[in-house]
Design a protein that fits this description.
The complex is a heterodimer. Chain A has four domains: 68 residues, Alpha-Beta Plaits (2-Layer Sandwich), CATH 3.30.70; 120 residues, Orthogonal Bundle (Fumarate Reductase Iron-sulfur Protein, Chain B, domain 2); 149 residues, 3-Layer(bba) Sandwich (FAD/NAD(P)-binding domain), CATH 3.50.50.60; 134 residues, 3-Layer(bba) Sandwich (FAD/NAD(P)-binding domain). By secondary structure, chain A is of the alpha/beta class. Chain A has 18 helices and 21 strands. In chain A, helix 3 packs across helix 6 and helix 7 packs parallel to helix 14. Chain A is globular and about 115 Å long. Helix content of chain A is 29%, strand content 17%. Chain B is of the alpha/beta class. In chain B, strands 2-1-3-4-6-5-7-8 form an eight-stranded mixed sheet, with helices on both faces. Chain B folds into two domains: 27 residues, no CATH class; 292 residues, Thiamin diphosphate (ThDP)-binding fold, Pyr/PP domains (Rossmann fold). Classes of the chains: A alpha/beta, B alpha/beta. Chains A and B meet through helix 17 and helix 18 of A and helix 1 and helix 9 of B.
Chain lengths: 542, 333
């Protein structure tokens, strides 16, 4: 006890001698949780991470965080089916953050401003052959080049892009956007050989002295169904129609076009036929809208453009100017069953959109491969049964979307890199998920989603102009700022402010916070008032 | 002009700080330079609303007066947990005398400063609801009536918590305290006439009266900063939940203050010269049960021997506040 008279003066701030941290039975700890958007992204993007930079208007930094995982933001912002938005926690509050539209804004901004990828660092001296210049192949090539490997891409087609060019119509993905993002990848020093079909992978690898190969040849062969047809019946497959759109001679489909199938390709080809001048375009599908594999917003857009859809019908016979349809009924299990009721429908041409097969001829004679259901089986490291040959995209078992392909490319590149270096690639352990219930949504202001402008219906029916517009800087910034930053500290200072014991130390911009456990009493207020769920309480060892 | 939250949409608009705001638009509490008027090591309970509210208010007053601040303190929790001999948590000039005389002590300090020509020094008096609405009430009214140049801040946790949770004139009806046990047909505190000290302060026609809660830092800082710059008697009534006395979880302190405001139980407003000039609107209205249920002092209203009629009477009080102060946006119900 200091020698001073009772109740006269006490020195300011002397309570620091009293370490109230000893009262604690639980301690708060900072953590990063996995935001649902990141978890849902097939390309493994750090969405919350790049939105963080977009929120402060630092679009280049946002773009750089984005392209660490995916070199195609402008393409993604147009063709990705954005499962991130389906998972977004903000969807439970008002509506999901328009991640896809911000991504597109960043991609377009990068093209406009001419942002380039960083050149790769030290070269490994290893050579990798990538077969196929589609999303998966280009993604793998990009990541392998950034990891210091020498990459050569061989593609059988006359132009790069694979299904992004020969499968996705222009009104969804303008070709100058595609070209800009492909060229930027090639500028990393990647050799692209077009019109170069790989007949046998082992021969090509030997001839080019390649140490590893990544196969991503896609699925380009339209499936045929047996339909009895008259001699003059015009039956084509959807993949060929979409592919020929890129050539000089546009396909001749006639005035009444019937598309058979219910996937996204069926929708794409129907909308293309409409734009080519068909007065009527009808999709025939054997089940119902709920069972349709095509994404509902695309179905909706097609209906807006005047495409008609005939549900619960199969095609039994194709004649010169008409088709015979049989009505179907769903059974208890939801499978369509024939009813024996027939009808005829006028049609100048029939386009089959019944799925695609993979041309696996390049793999003939390669040992150790396992092929099942027409696709190549790969391990969790994307390697086929043959050492050094990896595969991804539509030719392996998976959902067939651009984003999944891009994700395969990235994943394969990491395993190829490790394989070439004789090491093992260990993906970082996933953080625990950031659930809606861990958020304190009081702290977020109310902000409705910004809708992207849509081209008017008449121009959509008659031109290949892009249907969906983009955001401008003002509303892209607004949209980015709607992000709740689930599970990741965004330095809102709430913990620093609400602590009754001043036991949170603010480290300054970008450095987050520390707990001062000498004084933290473990009340848990910081956890309760953290908007984004980036703090949790853990029991003290007593 | 009423307090407006930052009006552009962004992540965490209602948070303490915001990296997207210009530094001068951020709160005092977001700053590494805040004065931490009440330092770590104080002996307040886990999750103490009063310790938090006192730091919020005095830090804002320190910032607004450029550190030229003197505080007088009534007896109560705040005084006891901050200055157990031989230590003090305070990092401002601070004096404690008696339970009932804080307004008079502050009046004396203000007079002394005037005599010394120190117009830059601002004087704050502070106390709990017991020291303010009961024991120091005569001195407080005198300070108002003389319009002494003092900002009085009452930290209202609705009972005498320091001495073991006895009823004060700020204790709400039905609440269990050590002296209002939940027995009989009307368990807990009685539905009395009430004693609304902010309105009593307004009846003195003093320049400034405001209410605030620890759940809305920006509103609180705005009111303290405004009050510091007004000459004459000013009164701020700050709602500070008490986990110990209310039987609530220590992490729920801010949530309960927010619910008190969002239910209408605690109206947040400001008044100048006896007239209400602005109110903080309810943002997400909730029924009174949501506020009552997390608190054990209201536990006897629910469960096996529930008293829905008493809950309804409490809801009626909240509804009356909503009507009287216009707490809902126009057109809402």
């Amino acid at each position: 006890m200091p020698n001073k008279p009772f109740a006269i003066t006490l020195k300011p701030g002397t309570s620091l001698a009293n370490l109230t941290g000893t009262w604690r039975t639980e301690r708060p700890v900072y953590l990063d949780r996995l935001p649902p958007c990141n978890n849902a992204c097939p390309a493994g993007e750090n969405i919350q991470g790049w939105l963080f930079h977009a929120e402060s208007g630092d679009y280049e930094q946002a773009w750089r965080v984005l392209i660490a995982d995916n070199p195609f933001p402008a393409i993604m912002g147009r063709v990705c089916y954005h499962p991130c938005e389906g998972a977004c926690n903000r969807g439970q509050l008002d509506s999901a953050v328009g991640i896809n539209s911000v991504e597109r804004f960043l991609g377009d901004e990068a093209i406009k401003r001419g942002w380039k990828f960083d050149k790769p660092g030290t070269q490994s001296g290893k050579r990798v052959l990538v077969v196929g210049a589609g999303p998966s192949g280009l993604s793998a090539a990009y990541h392998l080049a950034r990891l210091g490997h020498s990459v050569e891409i061989h593609d059988a087609g006359p132009l790069s892009g694979g299904m992004m060019r020969f499968g996705i119509p222009k009104y969804r993905l303008p070709r100058e956007v595609l070209d800009a993002e492909v060229v930027r990848i090639l500028e990393l020093g990647i050799t692209l050989k077009l019109n170069t079909k790989v007949a046998n992978i082992e021969d090509s690898m030997r001839a080019g002295n390649f140490d590893a190969a990544f196969l991503a040849v896609g699925a380009h062969i339209g499936k045929r169904a047996y339909i009895p047809a008259g001699d003059a019946a015009r039956i084509v497959d959807a993949v060929s129609v979409l592919r020929s759109m890129e050539g000089e001679d546009k396909p001749m489909l006639g005035r009444r076009v019937v598309v058979y199938g219910g996937g996204n390709t069926a929708i794409d080809v129907a909308r293309t036929a409409k734009r080519l001048g068909a007065t009527e375009t009808i999709i025939v599908y054997r089940r119902t809208r709920e069972k349709m594999p095509a994404h509902d917003f695309e179905v909706e857009e097609a209906l807006q453009e005047g495409i008609m859809i005939k549900w619960l019908s199969t095609i039994k016979h194709a004649g010169e100017h008409n088709l015979t349809l049989e009505k179907m009924a769903l059974d208890d299990k939801g499978f369509p069953q024939p009813t024996g009721e027939f009808e005829t429908m006028e049609a100048d041409s029939l386009v089959l959109a019944l799925g695609q097969d993979v041309d696996l001829s390049l793999l003939e004679g390669v040992s150790g491969l396992e092929i099942k259901d027409g696709v190549v089986q790969v391990g969790s490291n994307m390697m086929t049964g043959h050492q050094g040959i990896f595969a991804g995209g539509d030719m392996v078992p998976s959902e067939r979307t651009v984003t999944v392909g891009v994700g395969h490319g990235k994943k394969a590149a990491r395993y190829i890199d490790a394989w070439l270096r004789g090491t093992a690639y260990e993906p970082a352990a996933k953080h625990e998920p950031a659930d809606f219930k861990q958020l304190n949504t009081w702290y977020y202001s109310d902000a409705p989603k910004t809708m992207r402008p849509m081209l008017d219906a008449i121009r959509r029916q008659t031109s290949f102009d892009e249907v969906q517009g983009g955001l401008n800087e003002t509303n892209a910034l607004f949209e980015a700022r709607r992000c709740l930053s689930c599970g990741n500290c965004f330095e809102c200072d709430n913990c620093y402010g609400v602590c009754p014991d001043n036991a949170v130390i603010k480290l300054g911009p970008g450095k987050r916070f520390l707990f001062n456990y000498d004084y933290c009493k473990g009340c848990g207020m910081c956890v309760a008032e953290c908007p984004c769920g980036a703090i949790k309480m853990v029991a003290e060892e007593i | 002009m009423s307090f407006q939250p930052v009006k552009f949409y962004q992540t965490g608009t209602f948070t303490v700080g915001n990296r997207l705001l210009a530094p001068d638009e951020r709160s005092v509490q977001a700053s590494e330079m805040r004065s931490n008027s009440i330092n770590s090591g104080h002996r307040a309970c886990q999750g103490c609303g009063e310790a938090l509210g006192a730091r919020y208010a005095i830090d804002a007053a320190m910032a607004e007066s450029n550190g030229q601040l003197i505080a007088a303190n009534a007896t109560g929790c705040l005084e006891v947990f901050s200055t157990p001999y031989p230590e003090s948590s305070w990092q401002v000039p601070w004096i404690h005398s008696l339970f009932g005389n804080a307004p008079a002590v502050a009046t004396g300090i203000a007079a002394a400063m005037k005599v010394k020509g120190r117009h830059d020094v601002r004087v704050v008096a502070q106390g709990g609801d017991g020291g303010t609405t009961d024991i120091g009430f005569g001195c407080l009214s005198g300070m108002f009536e003389r319009n002494d140049d003092v900002l009085y801040i009452c930290y209202d946790n609705e009972a005498y918590m320091n001495t073991g949770v006895q009823r004060s004139s700020a204790t709400p009806p039905t609440a269990r305290t050590a002296t209002t046990m939940p027995v009989g047909p009307e368990p807990g505190n009685v539905f009395g006439q009430g004693k609304n000290v902010p309105e009593i302060a307004m009846a003195h026609n003093i320049p400034y009266v405001a209410t605030a809660t620890v759940a809305d830092l920006r509103d609180l800082e705005y009111k303290v900063r405004k009050a510091v710059n007004i000459r004459g008697a000013r009164y701020i009534h700050l709602f500070v939940p008490c986990p110990l006395g209310w039987g609530s979880a220590s992490h729920d302190t801010i949530r309960l203050a927010r619910l008190a405001k969002e239910t209408g139980m605690f109206p947040v407003f400001e008044a100048e010269h006896g007239e209400v000039t602005s109110v903080l609107k309810i943002r997400r209205q909730v029924p009174i049960e949501e506020y009552l249920k997390p608190q054990k002092r209201f536990a006897h209203l629910f469960g096996k021997h529930a008293h829905p009629e008493l809950v309804a009477r409490l809801q009626a009080i909240a509804d009356r506040h909503i009507r009287k102060y216009g707490l809902l946006e126009e057109g809402d119900n």
